[in-house]
TrEMBL record, chains A, B:
Belongs to the threonine synthase family. It comes from Halopolyspora algeriensis. This is Threonine synthase. GO terms for biological process: isoleucine biosynthetic process; L-serine catabolic process; L-threonine catabolic process; threonine biosynthetic process. Residues 90-391 form the Tryptophan synthase beta chain-like PALP domain.
Amino acid sequence: MTVAADTRTTAANKSFDLGPAAELVSKEEGHRQPLAPEFVCLEDFSPLEVAYDFGRVRREDIEAGPRSIWRYKHLLPVPSNVEEYPNTDPGCTKLVRADNLAKALGVKRIWIKDDTGNPTHSFKDRVVAVALAAAREFGFKVLACPSTGNLANAVASAAARAGWDSVVLVPSSLERAKVLMTAVYDGSLISVDGNYDDVNRLATELAGEHEDWAFVNVNVRPYYSEGSKTLGFEVAEQLGWRLPEQIVVPIASGSQLTKVDKSFRELGEVGLVEPSPYRIFGAQASGCSPVASAFKEDHDTVQPVRPDTIARSLAIGAPADGPYVLDSVRRTNGAVEDVTDAEVVEGIRLLARTEGIFAETAGGVTVATTKKLIDNGQLDPDSETVLLITGDGLKTLDAVQDHVGPKATVAPNTEAVDSALGL
Amino acid sequence: MTVAADTRTTAANKSFDLGPAAELVSKEEGHRQPLAPEFVCLEDFSPLEVAYDFGRVRREDIEAGPRSIWRYKHLLPVPSNVEEYPNTDPGCTKLVRADNLAKALGVKRIWIKDDTGNPTHSFKDRVVAVALAAAREFGFKVLACPSTGNLANAVASAAARAGWDSVVLVPSSLERAKVLMTAVYDGSLISVDGNYDDVNRLATELAGEHEDWAFVNVNVRPYYSEGSKTLGFEVAEQLGWRLPEQIVVPIASGSQLTKVDKSFRELGEVGLVEPSPYRIFGAQASGCSPVASAFKEDHDTVQPVRPDTIARSLAIGAPADGPYVLDSVRRTNGAVEDVTDAEVVEGIRLLARTEGIFAETAGGVTVATTKKLIDNGQLDPDSETVLLITGDGLKTLDAVQDHVGPKATVAPNTEAVDSALGL
């Protein structure tokens, strides 16, 4: 407990090496404060975000960097020697040209950013890796989180590799695959009798009591969330240092979408790309679509809902960054749309059969929403579109189990096989 | 059926573009024949292997190539424009310096080649990608296989991306995760009443009847199996263009181990690395350890066994390449060892808690065998050792489910959490 207590009292005068990160700024009124493990501005009570003094950042330096998110360290709140410490080193996942899917959807060009290739098979490895790097600099020794799955896997794995203890809190209803994949790394996995909102509230209380615990998505959230920018950085670099014309991003808390937007703006600001126009689209499941509702009703605020969808990794009824998502989408001339659970399953299957990529339910939401946006004319079929596929189908098998299976079960002879295939 | 029938009749005079591949050579007596979709020499009945005319292959050309196995196309039996066709483009997975594991095992330096990062999360994506590329050149239109899991996933995924039909035969007892992950790609998955030996025999019969079906591990096996060389190529490149001193490889059919050996020799022959000495070690589960038995009893042949182990992806009782494994291991001064199912589980857990990498049972076999080889003095603790982790823990959750889980299930308050953690 002493370490971070020290940290907090000295935060104002100690200078941390978090690379280009300069200070924290509140999102509402722009109040500034020194870098520290804080997440809410005590003046306007809005979330704190990292502000930077970017030096000169050149394409050649990035291209010569490691094959991980650390190639972008000069654009992230991490120490300048970040790659020297054990971490999961995620990122540099594939950007797949999805011609079969584009044809099936009747559009010109689709790219799939396939984050199933990360160490624990979701984009959460990106944000956790950045959180771990910042937490190490702040002097924390325990990595913690409340989670419904992908984040639990990523935190437990990263802590193991770093040689840290982890404390992961999950709702007791969590699926078997996610429980086992968290527990195997041998941190402290605690099952909590309650839903995700209960677990989240508990985590905030614990963060207040245990000041040596870095709750990645609570007290080090400003650093953690910047990790999502690497999705945008990679897309731009993989397209040959240019911004895509349209991008479809799933919405849970909404953080990822706003950070992809931020990444595109920063790339333009530091001169790594031409600041060409782009449109950002948000994707939700209808069973948890508060941001889509606000967008369609032209509201500036987001009314919380009680989630009821198979897309559990997106099931945040009160998305913290909802209003900022609305800002990003409206500013870029995008839209937010939502799809039914049946459409989510069809989205998973469409991506699998056209491109051989097996996404979790969140990916199904993204694919199905893209189809809907094309069908209703909001997404331009003649512009290229990037889809963020942020998690792996192996973690949400329940979603497809009643829909796919063997064509037939047959006796072990060739006639039986031919007959089953209608030959 | 017409396509491959054409292929076969013209194989002798048609010249296929399979890059540096020159002809097929029988492993026993060295009989030569033109490149064709054949897998057994009709003169000595031994397996056929690809022989090459390597041109000049330079490090710079490889380093400037794509971030996939196609960077090594000048060392593989694939068309020179292979990267222009849709494929899963696997490879370039991480080589992780595993200092925590090395410390736990009391050795100087361990590297983990982590093939869970491949598109369907196993090394099978490598061999299937090469098989698909060769099959396309031979004029096939259907990708097929018998499989117990990882191969089924890889074939169904690659066929979907290529726009091909697939026929995947699996034993009806196959685990849910592997069935669903194969079926989702929407090829023809056929469940067969029988064990893997029955399914394998059926596949060989079907390959004879359906000449337009490329059974990746039957009629195009000589090309398919060369894909495993890319594991060795990548390890050498990632070490800075040098061979490791020791490498531990799991044994199923034994093909992978012999191809890693071949890859190291080829790298030396074409001058990409110094031909420094290396030792190859084989890892088996005791419940299916025919090669380990033959090694320990100093036999040249391998006596088939009936498999009984949780390491199902290694459960081949009559390993086709068993004798060649013995050759490689003995020639390089290595060894073959086997471990119990309890040790396999402990191997999975040891890797997860030290390095944050969740391997399938085959990875547990590799880690546990490494520990045993160190303990019994066969593996030199002062030399560096590479471990091949070839598949993903999410596909074999059954192996760990009775061994790991939440520390406690508690009420949603901080006292309950602190109490569960002993604080």
